[in-house]
């Protein structure tokens, strides 16, 4: 039997025991590409392994108080990134991370007790509904939390036996947070009732016990490869990430050189064309010829602006940040976009959540980014339509409903984030367009999205501020662009 290295400050132990059966299933999960199949494999491991549930809660998931805590929800958070969390130094149990026979027997006995309690709690909660039953099962697995924490450090932890729902929730608060939902209360009451039944019956073995013991004690050939496999997968992910970052940096450098060269070689003839057009326009009286000359002049300036946008995207100026009131900035954006909105007979509204923190940003650059998104939405909607700008404070670790939020810079979540969401009721865009929306000159005209550097500039500005931007859409039902920025 091996151990789970603990790198979370939530638990005051260096490691937790890991069942042999769980180790084998985690190897299978690491090698499974399908998220649905991987989740099913992980649920099988979690079902008989309370320490693995505890470890996953501390390292992979911090649920919100209103969300039900279930094995399925935990398993959905397992992906190949959890390989990084598996790496650690199990200093209290030997250099190879193996656990002695006595500890293995004690862990197996604890697992039988925990699983039997969880099953009883789940059956008692079944009369409520399946969601409460699943939550009761997980809480039942963690009922013996004190005993599990004392496996390696008996003197440091008491084998607590909570006698009320309040005591149970107090015991689990470090790993689950505040359990305030009605379903959690029902689940907790079922756990306490199951614990009373188990105490009344005394220690006993049922048909589940042999299965749980095999899960904990029978060595499986592949289980010893869990940590080496996790380490290799982590290194592979790191190499891919480093390669992608280097490739993007090289692309941006090449684009800047191209833009600089183009600016030098093309801006001079563009200036001559625009100058001649303006000179001829000054003395021209024929209306049709005046329109033609004005068109020549405007198109020359458009080409100049595209080169400037290319240089801005490839090498933007460093933000000159200062504290700003985000509500004031949003009002300015809405006011500046008023004329364009009225010309298209559209509507633009904004809402700012009360108590939103100040932002430490370059106000001018952030306004450029927001104007680019709003302009993109106006072009997508054509005539008519509605654009909504909503600002709110994000709870730590929160993602948007699509679940596809882009990774934020390290440390951003520690201070909290502010989200600025710009939504329109235009035609939206297809899922395959999502990965190209922020590419320069990407054409999404089939979805009403135009060419140019507008969204690319927005992406560059947001990332230069240590934030992230993402978009979500259902074709025919509009689109929402979400900017996340760290608070001051």
Please provide a written account of the structure.
It is elongated and about 100 Å long. By secondary structure, the chain is an alpha+beta fold. It contains 19 helices and 9 strands. It folds into 3 domains: 218 residues; 78 residues, Helix Hairpins, CATH 1.10.287; 165 residues, Histidine kinase-like ATPase, C-terminal domain (Heat Shock Protein 90, 2-Layer Sandwich). The two termini are 47 Å apart. A 5-stranded mixed beta sheet has the order 4-6-7-9-8. A two-stranded antiparallel ribbon has the order 1-2. The protein has a two-stranded antiparallel sheet with strand order 3-5.
Q: What are the salient characteristics of this protein?
A:
488 residues; alpha+beta; Helix Hairpins; 3 domains; five-stranded mixed β-sheet; two-stranded antiparallel ribbon; 19 helices; 55% helix
Q: How would you summarize what this structure contains?
A:
The chain is of the alpha+beta class and 488 residues long.
Structural class: alpha+beta
Radius of gyration: 29 Å
Strand fraction equals 5-15%
Q: Would you tell me the overall average pLDDT? A: 78
How many β-strand runs? Answer: 9
The main sheet comes to: 5 strands, mixed
- Note the overall shape: elongated
Helical content class: 55-70%
């Amino acid at each position: 039997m091996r151990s789970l290295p603990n790198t979370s400050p939530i638990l005051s132990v260096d490691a937790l025991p890991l069942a042999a059966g769980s180790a084998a299933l985690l190897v299978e999960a690491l090698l499974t590409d399908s998220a649905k199949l991987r989740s099913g494999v992980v649920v099988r491991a979690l079902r008989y392994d309370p320490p693995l549930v505890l470890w996953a809660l501390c390292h992979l998931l911090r649920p919100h108080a209103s969300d039900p805590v279930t094995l399925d929800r935990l398993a959905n958070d397992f992906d190949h990134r959890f390989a990084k969390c598996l790496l650690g130094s199990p200093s209290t149990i030997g250099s190879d991370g193996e656990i002695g026979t006595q500890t293995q027997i004690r862990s197996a006995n604890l697992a039988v007790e925990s699983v039997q309690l969880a099953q009883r709690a789940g059956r008692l909660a079944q009369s409520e509904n399946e969601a409460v039953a699943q939550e009761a099962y997980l809480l039942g697995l963690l009922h013996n939390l004190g005993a599990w924490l004392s496996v390696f450090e008996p003197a440091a932890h008491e084998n607590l036996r909570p006698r009320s729902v309040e005591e149970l929730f107090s015991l689990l608060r470090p790993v689950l947070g505040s359990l305030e939902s009605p379903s959690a209360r029902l689940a907790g009451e079922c756990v306490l009732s199951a614990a009373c039944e188990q105490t009344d019956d005394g220690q006993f073995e049922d048909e589940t016990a042999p299965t749980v013991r095999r899960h904990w004690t029978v060595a499986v050939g592949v289980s010893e490869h869990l940590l080496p496999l996790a380490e290799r997968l982590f290194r592979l992910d790191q190499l891919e990430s480093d390669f992608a970052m280097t490739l993007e940096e090289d692309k941006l450098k090449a684009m800047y050189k191209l833009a600089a060269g183009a600016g030098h070689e093309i801006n001079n003839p563009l200036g001559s064309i625009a100058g001649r057009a303006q000179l001829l326009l000054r003395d021209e009286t024929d209306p049709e010829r005046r329109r033609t000359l004005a068109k020549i002049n405007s198109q020359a300036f458009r080409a100049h602006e595209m080169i400037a946008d290319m240089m801005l995207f490839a090498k933007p100026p460093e933000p000159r940040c200062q504290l700003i009131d985000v509500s004031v900035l949003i009002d300015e954006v809405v006011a500046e976009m008023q004329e364009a909105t009225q010309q298209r007979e559209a509507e633009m509204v904004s809402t700012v959540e009360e108590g939103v923190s100040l932002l430490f940003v370059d106000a001018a650059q952030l306004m450029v980014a927001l104007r680019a998104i709003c302009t993109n939405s106006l072009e997508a909607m054509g005539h008519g339509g509605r654009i909504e700008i909503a600002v709110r404070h994000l709870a730590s670790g929160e993602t948007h409903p699509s679940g596809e939020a882009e990774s934020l810079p390290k440390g951003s979540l520690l201070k909290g984030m502010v989200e600025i969401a710009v939504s329109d009721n235009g035609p939206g865009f297809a899922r395959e367009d999502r990965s190209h929306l922020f590419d320069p000159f990407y054409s999404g005209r089939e979805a009403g999205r135009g060419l140019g550097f507008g969204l690319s500039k927005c992406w560059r500005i947001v990332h230069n501020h240590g934030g992230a931007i993402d978009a979500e859409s259902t074709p025919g039902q509009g689109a929402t662009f979400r900017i996340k920025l760290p608070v001051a």
